[in-house]
Protein 1
Amino acid sequence: MELDIQCEEMNPSRWAELLSIMKTCNAIRLDDCGLSSSNCKDLSSVINMNPSLTELKLNNNELGDVGIEYLCKGLLTPSCSLQKLWLQNCNLTSASCETLRSVLSAQPSLTELHVGDNRLGTNGVKVLCQGLMNPSCKLQKLQLEYCELTADIVEDLNAALQTKPTLKELSLSNNTLGDTAVKQLCRGLVEARCDLELLHLENCGITSDSCRDISAVLSNKSSLIDLSVGDNKIGDSGLALLCQGLLHPNCKIQKLWLWDCDLTNVSCKDLSRVISTKETLIEISLIDNNLRDAGMEMLCQALKDPRAQLQELWVRECGLTTACCKAVSSALSVNKHLKILHMGENKLGDAGVELLREGLLHPNCNIQSLWLGNCDLTADCCTTLATIMVSKQCLTELDLSYNTLEDDGMRKICEALRNPNCKLQQLILYDIFWSAEVDDELRALEESKPELKIIS
């Protein structure tokens, strides 16, 4: 049995009720429930008495260092079999790291530790690394985002990596590491015995200087399938270096996030080669890069290559206009694999939707999720959107937020939703203004179609 509760303040009677349930749960998830250190005493007893408990998720609770000390008493008992521990944003400091080090050293069942968004600091995580180096530690996933780490942490991390062949996922995003530290980390990863599958380095102060070393990891670690370097100013020159690793035969990348990396259409030539030739790649995010229409047209050409297997393409806020929509439509009419397309915050306009129509309605197109929020759309394109909603039965998610559709447009959308051929499950409509009459229509639709969720 699993207990999964979010955003519920716990009064004493409710907490007592849940404690009796927890004694038989294999997973307990209590994110954002106003828990404190006193609740951790009870949870420690639950861990001690419930050997079937394998997952404990307590994100966004003010547990503090004292709470973790209580919790870890249960985690250190011989009967504990916990595998996954989530403590993100729990007001922890470096003082908690000695306690957590003891758990890492003594609890071989623990395979996941998520402690991001806590002020652990470099000194605290150095203590954690000591636990990682213990032969009893079998950790596979370590998440350290927003932990106020600096470049000084890398030497200890590399030492831990050398002794930890079990580690598969390492997330260090949103820490001020800088190029020198990232280069050092990458050299350590190349030499490490671990089969790393996920490496997240978003917003780590990386520039093009680090990209040759990241590329070397891609070339040498065929296990690496998920790389995120978003929110780093690597630029076109950095991307060119990354692509050397991405195009290497050893590279088996599946998910690549490059959002807000100062890329332009110049990078799209290299990215097109990756999309068209790297058959393992199924998801790429290029959000908030100035690719413009010329860049998007190159990407669309790559999507038409028979070898392209991409399933998700995120090009939100990329400086696109109506002019690229013909190329996108052409790609959609050829590519059978693309299921998720994010094109929001681009000035596509009503004419752009009309151009997309042919590709979206083509039998080859298997799109499931289409995001067109803030694309300068008006009521004039809603007849076309309604046709797509009714005709494309694989389409289950549509975002039209921040567009001026008004009542006329919304009524056409409602008419499409009433059609039994429309299989939409989620319609996102943030910041669209409509009358009380249209609001009544939308509420009635939700009642008559329980599978439909309208978010506004």
Protein 2
Amino acid sequence: MHRGLIHPQSRAVGGDAMTPILTVLVCLGLSLGPRTHVQAGPLPKPTLWAEPGSMIIRGNPVTIWCRGTLEAQEYRLDKEGSTVPWNAQNLVEPRNKARFSIPSMTEHHAGRYRCNYVSPEGWSEPSDPLELVVTGAYSKPTLSALPSPVVASGGNVTLRCGSPKGYQHFVLIEEGEHRLPRTLDSQQLHSGWYQALFPVGPVTPSHRWTFRCYYYYKNTPQVWSHPSDPLEILASGVSRKPSLLTLQSPVVAPGETLTLQCGSNVGYDRFALYKEGERDFLQCPGQLQAGLSQANFTLGPVSRSHGGQYRCYGAHNLSSKWSAPSDPLDILISRQFYDVVSLSVQPGPTVASGENVTLLCQSWRQFHTFLLTKEGAAHPPLRLRSKHRAPKYQAEFPMGPVTSVHTGTYRCYGSHSYSPHLLSLPSDPLELMVSGEGPDPVPSELKGSAPARPPEI
């Protein structure tokens, strides 16, 4: 009659991979009456839950509770996919619940559970299912906010969960809330990276928004990775945005030091610098200089990982809100591709004021975009999509009418659309000389009134 039942007095903790054994501890009740076999009647279904929760770190203990009625004589716990139930028969007053203990959570314990109970009226309906998830089976993914974890109050943000491995599903969970996990299929990028994009919002300052993400395989949906590092989403106020600029050129070679300056005339007490796709901020106290509050963020030695788009924020010490974000600033890392790029000028490197010139950037190997820089200028480089003019790829940068402002040293670079912040070796420098006197406005093509943008793909 009781073949396959697990009694706390007769079985040690253990079990094989297919049928994990649970230590059954029964509380609250003792029934010595005979087992009654009656057809299931309209008995209330029991409640099933897990402590400390339904998501358990691999190796940690978990207790599954099943609560029925005072008339319950026996409890049974079923795991989906397993043919052997776990039964608790020895109940102690008042006989309204049973405890099933897992001393060390493994992948084999993960799954979907239901419980029911028997009383003199028969067997109850099964409980609602309990999804028992084991975490820590795989390495942790990354979690970042696009474009930034600081979001205007009432605005939306996209959270990107990613991994270099091809797991099939990503899960996003908000901490501190009794909300169901959100699951999305993974998408593979050109780089080979896998990711899922979760829209979140609207963001409100009164709510604390902290998230983690996980991933799992389709055929084992209750076996999850380690969690990502937590990501907190902050609501920004309506304070005026600061400015962000580089004290050198926005094109930086590996090994150099880069300083980014965030400043404002609002008088912020502190500033934060954020790189798109990263999880953390860099924070720095503000310093007053000539009526402006500013902070310098020194990065280096520079490597390819420093390439990307940056924004900064300001805040007052007595406020938890950050300002609106600065305009974005693109930092470009050179010497990442070793194909030769050349730069020439037509009609020649010496030109009279008021004439027109064309700087021609070329390469034998394909680049999607060419960039033109002027030495000593902090404004963004000029960008043009390359065109194939057999046998080379090229871009023509027209200038004119030229003035003395155009005099200087120019270089060009190539970049690819899949990594627009990584550049080739620079071309040899080209000296442009403008002779004669002429008007001296800042030429429109070199003002850099807008930050360099990645090319359209």
Protein 3
Amino acid sequence: MRLQGNVWRVGGLAPATPEMDRSRRRPLPNGTSARLFTMSVATMKPSNSNPLPRRSLPAAPFRVLDAPDLRDDFYCSVLAYSPNCQKLAVGLGNILYIWSKGSGPRAIHGSAASHVWLTSVSFSSVQGGKCILAIGRSDGTLVLKSIYDALPRFQVQQPFPVSCVSWRPITTLRPSRNPFNPGIAVQTEDLVIGDDTGVIYYYVVEWPMGWEVTRDTWPGTIYLIAKVSLHSQQICGLSWSPNGKFFASGGNDNLCCLFDTDSVLVEKHESEDTANVRPTRPSSTAIRRLGSGAERHRWIHKAAVKAIAFCPWREGLVATGGGSNNKCIHFFHTTSGSALATIAVSAQVTALIWSSTRREIAATFGYTEPEHPYRIAVFSWPECRQVAAIPWEGELRALYAISYPRWPSKTKAMNHDQKPREGCIVVASSDKSVKFHEIWCNEGKMPGGGTGMLGGSDILESLEGIDKEGDVIR
């Protein structure tokens, strides 16, 4: 890793013999300050220097859904879940299904086609509560549809195939564009999409409720406010920080770029203060066109970057996963851009999911080294120690995964007093199935162990204003 302005070079295949004195945390000879760890893939008796996972997880999934038209494609991200409606969305070929434990599967959009397929799906923010699905297609079609509507409300034709879609996790107050009641402050959703050429589009969506549509005969609007041309190849991954202040993009050009949302939007919109929104008649919005330099940080990997995950309990911490020529999980500090640690996993990283109750992160793997039996692994932070792993038989690969929480029994709908319990992850598998695996099955919160929540760096922690009050996530 070498610092070049705001560019950090990281990663690569782990050396056969790790170039680090683990007991003394000596830096690698190439000068990187990031710590390097290696994942255990041995199936024999563990040694003292390379222990096997200490926590036992069920090897078999507790539920498997047949997915006959699931596309075996690293670049597709066709799973999404909304806690508002408690539905799992699955893209199979060109058809989108929703599934729930009580009602089973139901096709809600698309038709069988051999020349076009779904590439990415995403539910709108929990805060917005409207369960809008953004659906990207290989023919460049972007479709917006609520699970409560019979037909799609919007369809936008992009100039190139859509590869990724991702909603901002918070809503934003903006003046309404409703021609019958213009300028009134309304909650809007923000949507970013990436295409096959590496361009990122930033959309704003105003989505009135069904009764409002009936009253005004106006379905809402979607409009483009920014276009970011920075990546030189296909966008593979998009992810938001929990507070919506940042989003990150991963590309097939081996770059991961971090963006400050306010810098992309120019004007700062306070999502909780209605007094700051003037009820003026909205005018047409000029599209911002951004290029190199728009990013806050740029991290160079040695393979495509699909898996990106911001830590939900430690602001300023983000993890990325590299493809087949990288085979590593990297951890970065979003404020300084510093590389904090790297875990060499000997596998293509297809998804990263942070625990919300433990100081741990789960990873799923695609193509692996020949003797690598695991397709799911859990690591502690900041020790970067492998604490659990799940092997899959044969040459099956995990294509993509998302978190799937468990709800208290007899809960019919989500409300502000009831929250889902962390439980499992849902994995799209190369054998054309969707597997439900228990990962964090115990209730309650537990300490993660260790100190230094940003990589053991007291300097970084003082910059972030972090108080060391133990390791329990509160």
